[in-house]
Structure formats: C-alpha cells, structure tokens
Amino acid sequence: MRIATFPSTWKHAIIVPIHKPGKPANSTSYRPISLLPTLSKLYERILLERIKPYVYVIPKHQFAFLDLTQAFDKVWHSGLEQKLKTLNLPAYLLKTITSFISNRSFQVRVETDFSQLHHIKAGVPQGSVLGPTLFNIYCNNYNIPTPRLRVNRYKRLLCY
C-alpha cells in the first residue's frame, strides 16, 4: 500500500465456465466463474476496510433502479475514477484502487486448455471483494429520486 499499487499478477483471472443444470448445451447455458488469487482477495479486504469510512451510504431504494444485464462488466473505469475522487480518499488509497481496476486480464479455462490472454477495458471484477462496493460507488447518484410514500383510499402504500 505504501507504493499505491495493486500487483499485476493479482489482476489476472481464470474464467471457468460451469454448465447450468437442466439447460441445453449452448453458449448461454454456462455460468462464468472467475478464479482470482487468494492474496488478491486478502488485499482487497484490507482496502475495503480502508475505504469504508469514505463511502456514502447507498440509498435503500436504489436497488429498484438497477436491472442491468452484466452490470459489473459495464462500469466505465474513467467514470469510476471520477466518482472515487469525489469521496476525498487519501491519495495512496485512490491510486491503489485505480491500480486495482486498471490493466486487468483474463483467460478462459476449459478442462486443461486455456484461451489466449484478454485485456479488460471496462468493468469491475466479478468474484472480487471490492467489486460490489466499487459498483455501488459508480452507480451512486444524488439525482436518483427518493420515493415518496402516501396512502391511497384503500389504505395501501404507494411509491412514486
């Protein structure tokens, strides 16, 4: 953490496709599982504890606005970096998290065969410790309307 970097060997994932039970054998019938180094996950837990005091509370109603396919894969790195800057993180932490999301790569493994190396240009790593928190930071927007509650004449709560 002193050098504000995330080791490149920890940013390489091995993707293992697992067949979904009861599905036909085609490309959409497999669930990709990302295997990440154990030390990477330990370091991520330390980073997560360090950023928690700076993270805004995500509104409870925000979940209703998020129904995206492959949402973690669509996070724009420059946009996430801008959101992280608004948190006023210490410089070393901002640089380490920027290092964490940049220059990531993966390979797909099927039995003992590996695909060629692919570089990731967007998204936060699925299966990582920091991924969900970084996704929430990226999606957190103060312009999301807060639901207003009122009771209609049938005594039911309505959200607007």
Explained architecture:
Keywords: Nucleotidyltransferase, RNA-directed DNA polymerase, Transferase. This is Reverse transcriptase domain. One of its GO terms (molecular function) is RNA-directed DNA polymerase activity. Residues 1-160 form the Reverse transcriptase domain. The protein is α+β, with helices and mostly antiparallel strands. The chain has one domain (8-139). It has 4 helices and 7 strands. The protein has helices at residues 38-51, 77-86, 91-101, 131-139, and strands spanning 12-19, 30-35, 104-110, 113-114, 118-120, 149-151, 157-159. Strands 1, 2, 3, 4 and 5 form a 5-stranded mixed beta sheet that branches. Helix 2 crosses helix 4. The radius of gyration is 19 Å and the shape is globular. Mean pLDDT is 81; it is low at 154-160.
How is this structure best summarized?
This protein has 160 residues and is of the alpha+beta class. It has 4 helices and 7 strands; from the N terminus they run ββαααβββαββ.
